[in-house]
């Protein structure tokens, strides 16, 4: 059925943790009839006051609406929650963070029960939900038909980015971006550890660090271009041989400041291996080959 502007699509939401509650509030604020269920019923009380219907069981919540959105802790909690529910004819959108393999298995499992499946990977933290200017969005993959059918409803809490029919692709994009984030956090932790060894105000250092990370971020486009062309010497700005030659400076500085180099050394080791095996005129892109071959 085509969504119209008067009657908003009813939504069932399983899971009222920090993220589930934020999603619930966004749909309620936009006028969507909302049925919620949570393992610990107390967490639904405030939402009931705000207009949500609270189901006593997950089965009752699933029975209430065609669109069933799931936002639970992990895939095991999804299995536990859906046991005993009748999914026949339901459209299941699973926003629970998981692996690509879990998403693919869940898509099969849902299909075997007569339902359709769309997987989602949330690129937002709860305060970004329902705040379009926050830039938060959700990767979706799986049934494109399902995505199109519900896109307007799914776009209420956060932006939507569809990344393919393979149900595992949303999770893969999600985990890839979050992995890059942890690499950035690791670098920032090392940087703060260095400056903390001296009388330098971390609050004065933070904007320098943030600006530097933003300035370096566009380098990923060059990496993508080199991966596509297979030519890792294309448009190189900083040669691998030069960068490897510089690594002792980083390790010596860490040692002199009394900071453990353990967050840096795995990456430096890969750079050295690539240099030993490859071409010093390359960019750092060759490191990716060492991780995937
Ligand atoms: N919060 C965040 O910053 C991140 C942002 C990116 C996406 N993640 C993922 O979203 C999923 C839910 O996260 P959350 O923040 O809502 O997590 P919690 O506040 O810890 O709530 C967990 C909910 O899961 C329920 N639950 C846990 N185990 C079970 C189970 N075995 N059976 C049924 N429900 C279960 C829990 O229920 P309760 O403890 O209140 O009874 C909460 O509803 C997650 O995949 C993040 O990775 C969030």
Blueprint (SSEs and pairs):
Layout: E1 11-14, H1 18-29, E2 34-37, H2 45-49, E3 53-54, H3 58-64, E4 67-70, H4 75-82, E5 91-94, H5 100-112, E6 116-123, E7 137-142, H6 144-154, E8 159-162, H7 169-196, H8 202-216, H9 219-229, H10 240-257, H11 265-277, H12 286-292
Parallel strand pairs: 1-2, 1-4, 2-3, 4-5, 5-6, 7-8
Antiparallel strand pairs: 6-7
Helix pairs in contact: 7-8, 10-11
Bound molecules: ligand FVH.
SSE-based structural type = alpha/beta
Tell me the name of the CATH homologous superfamily of the largest domain: NAD(P)-binding Rossmann-like Domain
Q: Report the CATH topology name of the largest domain.
A: Rossmann fold
Lateral strand order in the biggest sheet: 3-2-1-4-5-6-7-8
Q: Tell me about the biggest sheet?
A: 8 strands, mixed
The average pLDDT score comes to 96
What would you report as the Rg, rounded to the nearest angstrom? Answer: 23 Å
Bound molecules: ligand FVH
CATH architecture group name of the largest domain: 3-Layer(aba) Sandwich
Helix content: 40-55%
**Count of separate DSSP helical elements:** 12
Gross morphology: elongated
DSSP strand content: 5-15%
State the CATH class of the largest domain.
Answer: Alpha Beta
Number of E-type strands? 8
Strand and helix order: EHEHEHEHEHEEHEHHHHHH
* Low-confidence sequence ranges: none
Number of structural units classed as domains: 2
Spatial gap, N to C terminus: 47 Å
Supply the key terms.
293 residues; alpha/beta; N-(1-d-carboxylethyl)-l-norvaline Dehydrogenase, domain 2; 2 domains; 8-stranded mixed beta sheet; 12 helices; 12% strand; binds ligand FVH
